[in-house]
């Protein structure tokens, strides 16, 4: 599944939005092919928000990291600004057993379900422009609601524990009709509050993320840089060469990479490198010297030091387990 992003909030672009956030949540893009759409639901709260839930299941182990995105579209020609919150959260269990409430098995609560499989929830809350306009009235500080003159941006944030608790409540509730609308609106406002808090906590220069990442071309270049790193874990590449290969300014590449993946280029490369080394040692049964050479190390002691820094164990200690 190729990852790409679509600016704006057209409902026909839902697939693109899912692919974009999945590229951040799943470290190995090819693994997203394992996902199967099990549930697709959408709710509109009049004059307030649009709520969508897509639940995917998978059969084999999949490294998924919880991630959230804040997308801002400024006012245009008489239209008010729009804000969208997107989340990718793993941890639930999906089950087709009709006896299960909401067809979801939550660990520790639905132990009797035998048809359950791990699932990933893709949740989107899009606040309607008129609702955002009502919140902006009287705004005097730099928050999510004081941005009429700003350019579009996309910012990746780490979902807080409070946010994930609210998402869980939004997915699993027993309300219908008007009460359902009231409930979803109240919970969506909590998410908006928590997201705004995270913005305020950041430095002023970083508060609104890398604005150049709103351009699809720039995001694709950074994704290409990540793919290059993953393809040659045995051959370290300088940031200068990496920037040249993806035709991007070094500074933009470093800043954009950290904004999209939450870490520096070097730390990301080393983490993936040591994870591959760990797999070769533990799963493939290769010797320490063999793995060190395969990972591009000419000195075994340097490899051992890097491995321990990442895993907390020396390679030889891992083999003894």
Give the helices and strands, then pairings.
Elements lengths: L13 H12 L10 E10 L3 E9 L9 E7 L8 E13 L9 E2 L11 E11 L1 H8 L16 E5 L3 H11 L5 H25 L14 H16 L7 H7 L4 H12 L3 H18 L5 H7 L5 H12 L3 H5 L2
Antiparallel strand pairs: 1-2, 2-6, 3-4, 3-7, 4-5, 4-6
Helix pairs in contact: 3-4, 5-7, 8-10
Task: Write a concise keyword list for the protein shown above.
single chain, 321 residues, alpha+beta, Arc Repressor Mutant, subunit A, 2 domains, seven-stranded antiparallel beta sheet, 11 helices, 18% strand, globular, disordered N terminus, Homeodomain-like_sf, DNA-binding, sequence-specific DNA binding, AraC-like DNA-binding protein, HTH_AraC
Structure report:
The structure is a single chain. This protein is of the alpha+beta class and 321 residues long. It has 2 domains: 11-209, no CATH class; 214-319, Orthogonal Bundle (Arc Repressor Mutant, subunit A). The protein is built from 11 helices and 7 strands. Strands 1, 2, 3, 4, 5, 6 and 7 form a 7-stranded antiparallel sheet that branches. The longest helix has 25 residues, at 177-201. The chain is globular and about 65 Å long. The model is unreliable at 1-13 and 203-208 (pLDDT under 50). GO terms for molecular function: DNA-binding transcription factor activity; sequence-specific DNA binding.
Query: Over all CA atoms, what is the radius of gyration?
Result: 22 Å
Q: Percent of residues in beta strands? A: 15-25%
Helix content: 40-55%
Distance between the termini: 36 Å
The count of β-strands is 7
Strand and helix order: HEEEEEEHEHHHHHHHHH
Query: How does the helix and strand content classify structurally?
Result: alpha+beta
Q: How many domains comprise the coordinates?
A: 2
Shape: globular
Largest sheet: 7 strands, antiparallel
By DSSP (H or I, 4+ residues per run), the number of helices equals 11
Could you tell me the mean pLDDT? 77
Low-confidence stretches: 1-13, 203-208
């Amino acid at each position: 599944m190729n990852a790409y992003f679509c600016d704006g909030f057209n409902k026909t672009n839902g697939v693109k939005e899912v692919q974009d956030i999945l590229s951040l949540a799943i470290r190995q893009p090819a693994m997203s092919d394992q996902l199967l759409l099990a549930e697709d639901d959408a709710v509109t709260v009049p004059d307030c928000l649009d709520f969508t839930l897509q639940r995917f299941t998978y059969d084999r182990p999949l490294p998924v990291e919880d991630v959230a995105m804040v997308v801002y579209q400024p006012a245009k020609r008489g239209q008010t600004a729009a804000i969208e919150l997107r989340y990718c959260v793993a941890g639930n269990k999906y089950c087709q057993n009709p006896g299960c409430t909401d067809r979801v098995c939550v660990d520790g609560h639905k132990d009797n379900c035998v048809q359950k499989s791990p699932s990933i929830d893709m949740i989107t809350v899009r606040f309607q422009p008129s609702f955002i306009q009502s919140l902006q009235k009287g705004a005097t500080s730099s928050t999510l609601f004081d941005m009429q003159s700003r350019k579009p941006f996309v910012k990746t944030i780490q979902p807080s524990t409070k946010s994930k608790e609210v998402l869980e409540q939004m997915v699993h509730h027993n309300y219908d009709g008007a009460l359902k609308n009231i409930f979803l609106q109240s919970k969506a406002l909590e998410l908006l509050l928590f997201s705004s808090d995270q913005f305020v906590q950041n430095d002023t220069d970083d508060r609104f993320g890398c604005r150049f990442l709103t351009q699809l071309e720039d995001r694709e270049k950074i994704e290409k840089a990540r793919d290059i790193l993953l393809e040659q874990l045995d051959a370290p590449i300088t940031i200068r060469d990496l920037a040249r290969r993806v035709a991007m300014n070094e500074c933009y590449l470093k800043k954009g990479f950290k904004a999209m993946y939450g870490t520096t280029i070097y730390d990301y490369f080393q983490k993936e490198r040591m994870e591959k080394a760990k797999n070769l040692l533990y799963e493939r049964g290769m010797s320490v010297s063999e793995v060190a050479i395969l990972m591009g190390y000419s000195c075994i002691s340097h490899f051992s030091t890097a491995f321990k820094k990442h895993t907390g164990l020396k390679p030889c200690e891992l083999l003894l387990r």
